[in-house]
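Researcher: Please generate the 3D structure of the following complex. Treat every line as part of one assembly.
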Amino acid sequence: MSPLHNLPEETLILLLKKKNQQAFSYLYDNYSEALYGVVCRIVTSAEHAEEVIQDVFVKVWKHVDLFDAEKGRLYTWMINIARNTALDYRKSKAVLNEQKNQPLSNIVNSKEELDQTQIEQNVKADFIGFRNILDKLRPEWRILIEMAYYEGYTQQEIAEQLDVPLGTVKTRTRAAFLQLQQLLKEYR
Amino acid sequence: MDIKAYISSGIIESYVLGLASEEEVSILNCIRKNNVEVEQAIAEAEKTLEDLADIQAMTMPASLKQDIWNRLNAENLVAPDGSSEGQENGLDNNTERLVSNAQGNKTLHLKSYRWAIAASVLLVLSVGVNVLFYRQTNEVKDQLTQTNLSFDQQQANLAILQDKWRLVQNPAIKTIPLKGVENKPNLQALVFWDQVSKTVYLSLEQMPTAPKGKQYQLWAMVDGKPVNAGVFPLDAKTDGASKMLDIPKAQAFAITLEDEGGKDVPTLSELCVMGGI
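Model: Done. Output below.
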């Protein structure tokens, strides 16, 4: 289940630049499930998620030459592509219209409601472990991660919505990261 | 800047979440280059999201792999290397081979790097050798110039000797050696006297160059009286034979050092050499 990541990133980059089937197989076998997990957390229906993950692979494949190792790791870069592609998809009109008929349309007004509906929509075994990890975060920290990471709110928007100063949003986000880091270590 | 305060402001997490403003990102990119702590904090935050993604990984529908591969092919995004059959069975081997290929590339890069170093060293050596050759060439040029110069001098000397030799060889010429007087025993000169034409040539064999304002003057002793035979030209080569005044008759020749231009009567105290016939 857990991705292998047994190639050093620089080797993987070289491999991807070959653009052949072996490169694709390696990429897919080692990263697709993690990227799919990110997509599923953002795009709430399995059908849409499958569409999005395909776009994610096409983008990674197409743009690997643009990847700049100076500015970060390949895995992080791919996660960001997955996340942004999914967020864009979610923002796109078609999806918004569809979501209007669902309780999800209220996400802006009710965070807790959103969390509940998302849990219901993503009833998958793998999801449980992930939920548990985030649930272990302090609630006022967890919501920041969810709003920022999975829903694409700016920190300014989060500050307004939660009615806390922007600086507090930032320092709490950091606190959330630190706690998450600790939890992930324990999980391993 | 207080790096600790900067890190704890949460800016790095904002950045990693893709929420930092353009301005914040450019500041951060500037700081991370020069600050290991910031670079480290960024790496940790990224790793946190990577670990999170690992844990949240979800099984994908099995058909997707082939679907995506077909789509990449359809969009012409695949290298044309013929490996079109997606055989799962050989994947491990393939992967291994690819890894070694990829590492091969790495070595290749390393090799290129080594070659680059070698090439640089060679370049430096080459430049050094060129400089050395250039210097040597210049030295050789200088030497050649020197040699040419000395050759010219030898040629000139030879010409002078040949002139004298011709005089000596000429049966009509009488060679009269003039020897240093008592207080100047080392001085020596030669008079070549053509008995037919009465022409007189003088060669200062071993005579110091005349001091400034002075000139050697040749005298013919004719019946006990000194007769002016001319001054030795100032511009003449000291060891060449210079034509003097014609002397039809003489018993001896003598040279005195006189003021420039010569005199009518020799200054006996300045007598240098003399020789009888």
